[in-house]
C-alpha cells in the first residue's frame, strides 16, 4: 500500500473527540508521582533559533534554542497565577484553567496562550500537533510530502491544530501558499506519543521543524 494511502487511512481511524487528558506513551511513567487534581500543564515555545532560558512559576528553568523549540510541559496549579520568566526577566503573570494543556509564545512583547487540548483519548494513537509560527503567514498548511494528503490546512498565524493518527513513518512538508519548507522526516512514533511540528521562519522562507513533546518530572 502506498504511504499516502496508508497515512490517510491512519488519519481516518485516528479521528475522535477532543479531551484534556494526554495519553502517556512510556510504561515507566505509570509509576512516577502523579500531579494533584486540578493541575494544568504549560510550556513555552521559542520559534527563533536564539538560545534562551525560560521558567514557569517555581518550576526549574529550561533552556531553549536551535535544537529545542519547546520546553517540557510544567505542572502548574490550575486557577492560580504564576510568573513567566524569559531570559531571567518576568514577562507576564498568567492564570490557566485546571486540567488544561497550554503553550505560551512571546509575540511582539505579549504572551499568547495556545490551547493544546488533545485530539483523542485513545492511548493506541499518536498525536500530531501543528503550529503556524511563521511571520507574515496568514494560512499555514502541512501535508505528506510528494503529493500526499493534507493533514492541516488554513492554520492561522500563532495558532495550532492537532489530530490523532495510527503511528506511521512519513516525510512531511509545510509552508505558506506555494512556498514550501524543506521536507521533514517524521520519526517512527509510538502509541501515546505527541509530536509537535513547528512552521517557523517567514512566508517567503518557511522552515519546518519537529520534536517529541514531553512533560517535566513532577516532584511532590
From TrEMBL:
One of its GO terms (cellular component) is periplasmic space. Pathway: Glycan biosynthesis; alginate biosynthesis. Its main location: periplasm. It holds the Pfam family AlgF. Belongs to the AlgF family. Keywords: Alginate biosynthesis, Periplasm, Signal. InterPro entries: AlgF (IPR035422). Residues 1-23 form the signal peptide. It comes from the Bacteria. One of its GO terms (biological process) is alginic acid biosynthetic process. It is found in: Periplasm. This is Alginate biosynthesis protein AlgF.
